[in-house]
Specification:
The chain is built from 14 helices and no strands. The protein is mainly α and 346 residues long.
């Protein structure tokens, strides 16, 4: 295997993005920070994909499949670790899987389908989606032209945007509603399962394969274009909010150019971080942990105040603090003899 180039900026970016995701799930200044916080998940997918396929490209032909296999095993261990740790909270949050269900078969089916294609513990969908999307993109790239794959995954992403943000346009269309309902009978919404990851995983691979030139030739034009797209994203969000009355739509059309451009910008930034691995590990721990902590904190805070903004601020601070403390405890204890298993937390 060739020596891999270090991308410390991506480790730092993942750390910052993990904080942004905490802000999403704690509704921090929701009226002001949405939808810009929504860049976090697509960029997380792209960064993970880029680093993985960069390793694949540095491997010999015989090693490539093994790199993907190792990735699958590592993600599976990560999933199982947090599934076990968060099981008490998952049982509480997912009690609807059992209550009102008429047979043990349906309970098992619910758990099995959600494990494979959706979430068990809150936010676990990201890990599952990463696994499936990566396997699909890797294997499809061996057989199908990249241009065709781009069109397919791009259209799937557009469909995810329509389901997430523009359902008003087809809510009365029986044909489309039947398709969506049929899909969600077997899987979670495409917005919270592997379809939403396909485009971003593919784009990360294209950058790793150097199919996309990440060098910025005209910096002023690039920055101006990025600012324009960011403003257009805000306008799209306001439009979507006026349509649906919802702050929390996940997918937007203008996330596509913005996230690709931001990722391109990141690849043009070269920094050396002494503790880049710590940033990476904290972000990995924070992602699965925070979404189970935040609802508990919010429930407690609601006993003291009904102010939505105050709850959001304190929920963000407390949840992020819990995640950081848990990260430092895990990273410290995993070096000891009896707690080496904690390495599977990240």
């Amino acid at each position: 295997m060739e020596k891999l180039k270090r991308y410390d900026i991506l480790d730092l970016a993942k750390f910052i993005l993990s904080i942004m995701i905490v802000a999403i799930h704690t509704a921090l200044f929701q009226t002001y920070l949405f939808p810009w916080l929504r860049i976090a998940v697509p960029l997380f997918f792209m960064i993970s994909s880029f680093l993985l396929f960069d390793r694949v490209n540095a491997s010999s032909i015989d090693q490539k499949d093994q790199v993907i296999k190792n990735y699958f095993i590592r993600q599976l261990k990560l999933y199982l670790f947090w599934f076990i740790v968060l099981l008490p909270l998952t049982i509480y949050f997912r009690k609807d899987w059992v209550i009102g269900v008429d047979s043990i078969f349906h309970i098992i089916t619910n758990i099995f389908s959600n494990t494979l294609f959706s979430s068990t513990f809150i936010a676990s969908w990201f890990i599952v989606a990463s696994i499936w999307a990566t396997l699909i993109v890797y294997n499809a790239s061996k057989k199908v032209n990249n241009k065709i794959l781009f069109v397919i995954f791009f259209l799937i992403n557009i469909i995810c945007c329509l389901i997430s943000s523009y359902s008003t346009f087809y809510v009365n269309n029986e044909f489309i509603n039947n398709i969506v309902q049929t899909y969600t009978m077997f899987f979670s919404s495409p917005v919270f399962s592997f379809p939403v990851a396909l485009f971003w995983i593919f784009m990360g691979k294209m950058f790793a394969d150097k199919k996309i030139n990440y060098k910025i030739k005209y910096k002023k034009t690039f920055c101006l274009s990025l600012i324009i797209f960011i403003l257009l994203l805000y306008m799209e969000w306001k439009y979507v909010y006026n349509l649906s009355g919802m702050f929390t739509n996940d997918c937007y059309l203008f996330l596509i150019p913005i996230c690709v451009m931001i990722f391109k910008l990141l690849l043009n930034i070269s920094i050396n971080l002494k503790h880049n691995k710590i940033f990476r590990n904290i972000s990995t721990i924070t992602f699965p942990l925070h979404a189970s902590v935040a609802p508990v904190v919010a429930y407690i805070l609601k006993h003291f105040t009904s102010d939505f903004m105050v709850i959001g601020i304190f929920n963000f601070i407390i949840t992020l603090t819990c995640c950081l403390l848990a990260s430092f405890i895990i990273l410290k204890l995993e070096k000891t003899k009896y707690f080496k298993f904690l390495k599977y937390a990240h």
